[in-house]
Automatic annotation (TrEMBL):
Residues 16-49, 57-90 form the WW domain. This is WW domain-containing oxidoreductase. The gene is WWOX. GO terms for molecular function: enzyme binding; oxidoreductase activity. It comes from Rhinolophus ferrumequinum. Coiled coil: none annotated. It is found in: Cytoplasm; Golgi apparatus; Lysosome; Mitochondrion. Keywords: Apoptosis, Cytoplasm, Golgi apparatus, Lysosome, Mitochondrion, NADP, Oxidoreductase, Phosphoprotein, Repeat, Wnt signaling pathway. Its main location: cytoplasm. The keyword Ribonucleoprotein does not apply. InterPro entries: NAD(P)-bd_dom_sf, SDR_fam, WW_dom, WW_dom_sf.
Length: 377
């Protein structure tokens, strides 16, 4: 139990708790067997339940399986820089002949992205996350990278993006992550990003449109459009258009558009029910920062729904997501009133790592070496 406690796996059901002197082990092909140190024997069946078990899923992020000079399998945790002969997946074993599980909700508002991705191997998947140098964009990019995906942080500030890359590599030096410049407030920058990405000749399996501006004073971009509208919606709209062919070639693929519940508190139609373009990019006299943000989030919803309708037959899905209740992040930095509001609300909000849950640890030493049981099948 001491080894399990060190690994963080000691919180087990009482039915599966081993008697004193027993120990769980795993074979190279993922089967669980039990060693009795008192009698120096091994068996496949659990000493209390009589069940046979096997390992479910892949190793957690940052772990690798190695073999020592004696042929003994051990596990390396690169995140916490430690090794163990205890398989970290022992907390996630399943019965050899499992019954059909009952349907139930697996995740709730307190679930983190890392918990959802537990055991998932995203090796070979390519992911772009916009606005990934901080906030939920960073947590999303990190979660993908630590599970094996090749992640591109698409950010306006390349220096801060490279710092974010360094933080991820600091958690797992084998993470495949890089930064590229993308300024959504300049459509030419969006075009340059798409061209540079296509020049890599790689697939694109996930595009997370996360970057956003909030509570900005009224300004026009170099393209002559109101900044909140262009950054939050039009820039991403143009980006998806430019990368649409890559997404379709990479199918199954998906686009995730980070929107907000605030889309409910606005409208972009005039009194006749027709689209009012002046509401999308208003003049200075008609501008209110919160309303501009809400309208941009409504555009996100409408865009995602139509994108899914058009591309889902080609294997590309699109979903708009609300990341959760108001959170403490740097998005409020443009006005002190919002900074105060977010600060007061912080004790009642979700943490950054919980916001990213959209949809994968042991003491040095060796086990005593007596033989595994032979499998009868």
């Amino acid at each position: 139990m001491a080894a399990l406690r060190y690994a963080g796996l000691d919180d087990t059901d009482s039915e599966d708790e081993l008697p004193l002197g027993w120990e769980q082990r795993t074979t190279k092909d993922g089967w669980v067997y039990y060693a009795n140190h008192t009698e120096e024997k091994t068996q496949w069946e659990h000493p209390k339940t009589g069940k046979r078990k096997r390992i479910a899923g892949d190793l957690p992020y940052g772990w690798e399986q190695e073999t020592d000079e004696n042929g003994q399998v051990y596990f390396v945790d690169h995140i916490n820089k430690r090794t163990t002969y205890l398989d970290p997946r022992l907390a996630f074993t399943v019965d050899d002949n499992p019954t059909k599980p009952t349907t139930r909700q697996r995740y709730d508002g307190s679930t983190t992205a890392m918990e959802i991705l537990q055991g998932r191997d995203l090796t070979g998947k390519v992911v772009i996350v916009t606005g990934a140098n901080s906030g939920i964009g960073f947590e999303t990019a990190k979660s993908f990278a630590l599970h094996g995906a090749h992640v591109i942080l698409a950010c306006r500030n390349l220096t801060r993006a490279n710092e974010a890359v360094s933080r991820i590599l600091g958690e797992w030096h084998k993470a495949k992550v890089e930064a590229m410049t993308l300024d959504l407030a300049q459509l030419r920058s969006v075009q340059h990003f798409a061209q540079a990405f296509k020049a890599k000749n790689v697939s694109l399996h996930v595009l997370v449109c996360n970057a956003a501006a909030f509570a900005l004073p009224w300004t026009l971009t170099k393209d002559g459009l109101e900044t909140t509208f262009q950054v939050n919606h039009l820039g991403h709209f143009h980006l998806v258009q430019l990368l649409q062919d890559v997404l379709c070639r990479s199918a199954p693929a998906r686009v995730v558009v980070v929107s907000s519940e605030s889309h409910r508190f606005t409208d972009i139609n005039d009194s006749s029910g027709n689209l009012d373009f002046s509401r999308l990019s208003p003049s200075k006299n008609d501008y209110w920062a919160m309303l501009a943000y809400n309208r941009s989030k409504l555009c996100n919803i409408l865009f995602s729904n139509e994108l899914h309708r058009r591309l889902s037959p080609r294997g590309v899905t699109s979903n708009a997501v609300h990341p959760g209740n108001m959170m403490y992040s740097s998005i409020h930095r443009n006005w002190w009133v919002y900074t105060l509001l977010f600060t007061l609300a912080r004790p009642f909000t979700k943490s950054m790592v919980k916001q990213t849950a959209l949809p994968p640890k042991v003491k040095y030493g060796k086990w005593t070496t007596f033989c595994q049981p032979r499998r009868s099948d």
